[in-house]
Design goal:
alpha+beta, 29% helix, 163 residues, redox-active center, Glutaredoxin, disulfide bond
Length: 163
């Protein structure tokens, strides 16, 4: 697939997971160095917010938005995933007062499992996946223009419908 970055075409190689498929398994560390896997998130609907780089404007907006939603909605798991380092995520969260689950993946294992890694940029395509209690994808948005925000309302509505 391809997305754009300010109009420039960017390749996102591979086949990305589709609605109705079981989400690919992953295990990533959070900011407390605890491993969080897809299996840990089962039992509640889950919103996976995938961002290219925590230190950019749109990624910051997206993460703050879901951090706010996470503080308001019980029974829904929220996790932001990027291939930033733990230090980059921790510094940003400390400055911004964000306390939601942040998962770092500098080795790009998540991005390769979900085929969201863009080799040309060394970052992930901005995406949202909403998973049901069993880890099946029930909503997916891969934002077609990297500099645009995702459709928060649709993602939240999808998660609420599963709660």
């Amino acid at each position: 697939m391809q997305i754009t970055r300010k109009g420039q075409l960017i390749d996102v190689p591979g086949k990305q997971p589709e609605v109705g498929e079981v989400a690919p398994a992953f295990s990533l560390k959070n900011l407390q160095d605890q491993m969080v896997s897809l299996a840990n998130l089962k039992g509640n609907p889950t919103i996976l917010s995938i961002i290219p780089d925590i230190d950019t404007r749109v990624c910051a907006i997206q993460t703050k938005h879901f951090n706010h939603e996470a503080s308001q909605l019980a029974g829904i798991n929220f996790a932001t995933i990027s291939n930033n380092t733990k230090a980059e995520q921790a510094n940003w969260c400390g400055q911004e007062g964000v306390d939601m689950t942040m998962l770092h993946d500098p080795e790009n294992t998540f991005g390769q499992a979900y085929n969201l890694y863009m080799p040309e940029l060394g970052r992930y395509a901005r995406s949202i996946f909403v998973l049901d209690r069993e880890g099946v994808i029930r909503y997916r948005e891969i934002v077609p223009e990297m500099s645009h925000e995702p459709d928060y309302a649709r993602a939240i509505a999808a998660a609420k419908s599963l709660a």
